[in-house]
Amino acid sequence: MSFKDKVDLFPVSQLDSTKDEKETTLSELYDKPEESNSTNGDGTTIRSVAVVKKSQVEFPVTFRELQSNTDIKTPPSNWLRGQFSICLPNLTPKRSDFTSFIMGYQFPDCIGEVDIVSDAENIKKLLKMAYKPNTHLSMMVHRIGKTILIDDFDIYKYLLRRGHNEWKWLRKFFYEHVLESLDERKEQNVIVRPDKSRDVVQSRNLLSKFLYHSIEGNVKQTTPEQEGGESPVSVKALSSPTKDASGELLAEEHMPDCSVQTFARNVIWNFEDVRMLIGTDLPIFGGRTHPCVSLRLKEMDKPINILTGIDYWLDNLMCNVPEVVMCYHQNGIVQKYELFKTEDLPHISDSPFSPQLVRDIAHNILSFLKSKAAKEGHTYWLFKGKDDDIVKLYDLTSLCSEENFESNEKDGAKENVQDDNPFTIPVAILLYCVAKKLFGSKDAVDKLPTVRSLLESSLSLINKDMYPKIYCHSQLILADIYLPQDIDPDVPTLVDIKKEEVLLTKVNETKTDSKVSKKNTKKGKKGKGSETVSINLDTLCRHHGHKSSKTKQKTSESPNLSKNVYERCNDAVRHVILALQFLVNYQKDETTSTGGNDRDSEGRHAGNIPDEPKRARQNEPIPMPYEPLNKTPPKVDTTRESEENQEISNSLRELVVSNEKETDEKRGSVRNKKEGKEESKSNTQNVIVPKAVLAGTTLNSYLKDASWIDQFYFKFFRKTSLIYMTKGRIELTSCNYGLCLRYAKLSLRAWCAMVKILNTDKEFPLPSQPLLLAGDVYYNLSKNWDKTPQHIEDFNSLSEEHQNMNEILEKFVPFEDTRWSIKAPCDNVEAMMLSFKCFDVAAKFTNSKPDIDLKRRVASICNELGCIYMNQADQLCQNLGTGIDGCGSLWEDSWQFICNAFDIFEEVRDTENLALLHCNKGRYLRLYAFYSSSVNGEQVNNLSVYKIYEKAVKEYEQALTLLNSKQSLNSQVRVSVVWEFSSTLFGYATLLHEDDEILDADKSSELVSLYNRCLKLCVSEAKTCNSKEPLYEYRIAVIHIRLASIYHQKYRSGRDSKMMSLAEMHYIKSAERFIKLDSSPEDILKVHLDHIVLLEDSLEGIKNPLYKWKKNLSILKLLTDCLHGLAIVKRQREERRNVDQTNEEKKGQKANYDEKLDGNSNEKVILQPLLELLEKKLNLSLLTMLRLSKSENKSLKPYEGDLKTMYSASLNKLSKSIDSHLLDALSSILPILNSIRAQFKMN
């Protein structure tokens, strides 16, 4: 049966898959099932699925069947002349030695997701070992995460044809430890030279001509781009290297040109449970009834052997090709075609093989490599001699490090095996590419531990001087992993990261393995045996039933990132410091090597491999070294930079005045309101960056023309500012104000260094967050000044980290230019002033939208400063006694700050704080009026003082109005306002009360009104405010006695009985309040004595003896009511005596306590006169009643004896202290008096 009767092929457009983003299964393209199954003779099914990851084929190729007896040795007309959409075999194949790495660069998302990355030919060579035991095997193996990279290694090419100094470490190891163990016969089987015989070349030439003959004549062709010996294949050129946002070049720039090294298609091949990323060049043709076939050329007289069958079978499985077409020829003359199904290839009679055995080899090879090639970054050599039955795996990194260590000990040389290992840099760059790809993925948060491990492994391998951009970008990503740029330093929260298991050793283990100890070097070959493992071919071919290839392997759980934000900040700043130190040194070396001082110089390309020739890049014109004839030197604006620096310097110096000025001006007044508004407006016109810049706003417009060094400087300084800002906020919550202030200073200084890197002529504002942090610290220091020395010590102490960062920042922002920034305050007032200045400058540099919270903070600080200056002025006026003249500047500053705070709170409509500000203004006016009315202890009452008090009263009334309008406001605010209001009313009334003109002119109604308002306010608050109840009770008692005195005065002048009744009522209420307080005996005695005087005044001109008797009984009752006050005096004396006695006993001394008590200033000045007056009133009252009992009124005669007894008791016969005498006398008089009053009432 001829092939023509069976097949009618036609082109299928779906075969093209040039889009990298979309993965397409070949079976979908060809209308075949997704999973290709191959059934073994025992019924076992081999599962195989291939997914096209990327295809270079642009157009499908139509198959043209050649006529019988066609001479394919004759070159076709299209041979080597056009580029077709099919990858044809190259006459002189040029394949990169880094094919797995190139695929890794192209598809970094597959690294860690697939088990193996390799050329399809390498995979086939491994899987055919069971059927070709005499095959030679030499491959390099590397591990990246969970993925094994396999590349072919030609011993003859790299060890025998290289220069003497190339691969010296591996050549030495090969000669001394591989060939040394073999005899001469086997030595020839180890070094296998490439077969370039005439038959091989002719066979390859014949296959190329046959495939070109088989292409349909009307296939679309493109303009040839490759001449000479290049293969006519259609390959999409790789895009030229570009710069990303970080400024580093893509990894392809550091690798050999791969424009002719890509495969026709890259496929994700799932062979059973083994997942592989492979590159294949299998030519695929299509037709009408058989849209997907592979084409093979076979000699007629040679049967298909087992190796050829396995080769065809694996090629079709890797590409999901369902059929293969065999073209048989004899001496180049076509004889016939034959069609085979892919699943039938293992069962061809001439070459049967077991797919199950191939599957077992795949399982065992993967298990062997994953368990033994476990160290990431190490280079392993998978080696098998031509006739050996053992496959060996050498850890070249460890073994050759030992050799290098031994030779260096002997020769004293300092060589690093990594510098001679051509795989080190590709491994490091691939680790970096994979980490960068994972870091930019959508689920990057869950992969951060893996990204960190990959980057740390890459940094341990890469030469940072040769690849500075990759080194810096790796350090930047690591810093971002520990502390993301979008984190809010005010509320630093981190996303919880899931734990990952990564098939790689820890980075420190990899580093440790490269440093060989002296003990290992002394062991010689025995020590090296531990770095070499082997496996027998029989073991590789062993059947394991249907167990999954995902065998248990030693996994090391990737160390999870700490959840402690402070620890993460320390890790991040460690990477930032390493990168900045490197950039400083690299820039210095660059300047030295170029002989100039241009840090932006790109003359020496940092990313190129040394000695690599420069290549032209696609779509980029080649620069020609021509210059215009009339070339004028560019004008250099020497004033722009100095003006820019001056602007920035002036803006920064507004933060805190210099040390010299600050000491003299710590009480300097705030600018007046109009000047402040104009200054604020002028300073915020060009504000372009809000505080969010610190958290990651991109500034690409400034970095567009910057060099890569400046771009990294900018990013690292911005990261530094964010790190220290976050650490400062954490320290603030822990009340470590010294460290917090230091971090705020470092954050601000790093920001200034970043601004200097921008080199822009525009005004660049300060970040508000470090200023706000410093303001918070200063505010807290002013409130906790007793602990400030420890905080100052923390601020001045420098750790190694701080010293390193200061050394770096010093190169960009010299210390003498930053003396203004952050400093330690001298006292709590200066701390509060510094806090105000920080908040004030931060408010200027916010964006155009008003920051309400920041305005509130500025207003709060102004209010605090106003209160501080007001209290200082109050204390100074009390001490000096000169009124307001001695501290006028303090009163002015206080009023200015309070008014500024009031304006801001009014602007933001903060009702609660406005009420407090009204209260503070009222208090200020009250104190100012009080000290204005008193000069050298003398009252100076005038109308201006009264007007100030009236303004104070209005302020408090407005405060209460605001508080009453919103019941939800803080009750403590209302308590404070009401107390201050009552104090103002009381003070104003007291001042009026002491003005004789007010009472003489009978204008006391205003005074009584003030007292009544204050009394009403105090009575209502005393019921609800427990904290101030004693104060309110005392003030109520004082107001009552003062109102009583006013009515008493009016009674004296008018003899109005109503006035007397009011006076008596207030005297009684006042006495009740004082007795309730139980703490002021002098007030109790005074109110009773004043009440007695009122009763005595009422007896003037009265001649009726019964009326006089009645009033004197009332006077005696008031006198006995003084017993409560006398008891308090006795109790207080005993308490003082006990305290003094205890103190004297401790000193071993004795003293006359009575003498000490008599010398008590309070008793001597206030209490003693009252007691003497009380004794006098007692004697006078009893004498008056004795005279009345002897009068003509006989009804009073029965009381004469009791009166004599009471009078006798009132006399101090034993010379006791006056208070003791009165206490005893009144105690004995009280029961007699009660008896007399009862009898008099009955009669």
Automatic annotation (TrEMBL):
**GO terms classed as biological process:** positive regulation of DNA-templated transcription
- Ranges annotated as biased composition (Basic and acidic residues): 17-35, 590-618, 659-681
According to the UniProt record, where is the region Disordered? 17-44, 511-563, 590-683, 1135-1155
Query: What Pfam families does the record point to?
Result: EDRF1_N, TPR_EDRF1
All copies of the EDRF1 TPR repeats region domain together span: 854-1237
Looking at the record, the residues that make up the EDRF1 N-terminal domain are: 46-220, 238-485
What InterPro entries does the entry give? EDRF1_N, EDRF1_TPR
Spans of biased composition, class Basic residues? 517-527, 542-553
Q: What is this protein called?
A: Erythroid differentiation-related factor 1
Taxonomic source organism: Armadillidium nasatum
